[in-house]
Amino acid sequence: MRFSINNLIIRGKWISLPALLLCIVTTSIAKYDFTSQSPWPEIMKERLETILPAAMETANIDAWLVICRENNNDPLAKHIACDNAGQTAVFMFYFDKTHKNEQTERLFKSIAFSPVGEATSLKDMAVLDDVHPVPRNENAIVFASELIKRLNFSTVAINMSDEDPQADGISHTQYKALVRALGIEYSQRLVSANTLIQEYLSIKLPVEVDIMKEAAELTAKWQVQAYQQVVVGKTKDSDLALFLKQKMREHGVSDAWAPSQNPNVVSGTDRGHSHATDRIIRHGDIIQIDFGIRVFDTWVTDIQRFAYVLMPNETEVPEDIAYYWASAKQGRKAAFDAMLPGATGKDVDSAQRAVMLATNSKPVMWSTGHPVGYVAHDSGPSLSSTNSNGSKQLKPGMTFAFDGFHSWIMKNGQAKTISVEEMVVITDTGAEYLIEPQQNLILIK
Prior knowledge:
By secondary structure, the protein is of the alpha+beta class.
């Protein structure tokens, strides 16, 4: 093995030293066996007891109603324990006003109006305060409506949203049935759960962040290993994608987003969100791998790693490519430094784009970043100057994937972009990387 200051040559292939160190670091003893039983049920229960009441307070909601069913369930079903619903079930989380010593207290409660067939197992889970069995010839929506009327809620949030697909779970027929059961007066109290859901999903418990850190380590390590497979002039982008798919199968994890587009491996011009093609990797290529995994069938990652294929006469990155890489990292740092509690997503995006302007980058269509956690593009503040969610504030416990961009026009007249994507969690003092960020291009000879 031959050493140089910035890079190593391994079996005739070049790899940056920070990338190699990343491989070494991530071979440490794992805390989690992703093929074992998922910790999600207990974590979900803790979230319902701690994060959900705070989210409802922030959104100024008295009650949250979710209608669940078999085969075409609400996107939030897994987050409230109604993912095993058969016939229509209604889950409600609400503040019940009680009077004590001439003062009004708001007690947080939860109830499921569950088909009798699933009610017993739901009770055994002990996630909700109460489970009301619904006979097979009766309607859960009617039972829930009667509770709404009896407790006289001012606002009842339902999963309808024109902003967030995860918050838009109620079907048209379910909505009509609910309105019919509530009547005119109470149906006018129905509001969108969009803000509530964004508040609820965007905050992660420390144990969830811990799981995501370990998943992120695997995600980055496997990308480095994929680059070690490259044989210039023979290996295709799709070969690297197949290598990563095999890694996922071996370790019992699945795709963070659409399987046909994960991972996206691009050695040529920009392709955006797409599948890896059969393009053969050549000397002078800058290779991008955009890759994410799902662990315990719940938490996801979204990380990119970049490599440069040295020309036959090169021993280091050429000056122009080195400038593009350094500029992208500079944008990443600006975004990272701007991710403070209380800052908006627009603040972060503006900081990153100021660097793009100063370094003569071409503009890009993508936002600087997005929430990540339960899906790759999760609910919460968008790190964007154009998305409506960009005006929302960052809070401790939120997790993001974000990029530092530099884009230029290649000799063929087409665009190429470096987007150094990493994952962070927001703390009381600022952002914290989930894993060590990529510092140098991985070099392939």
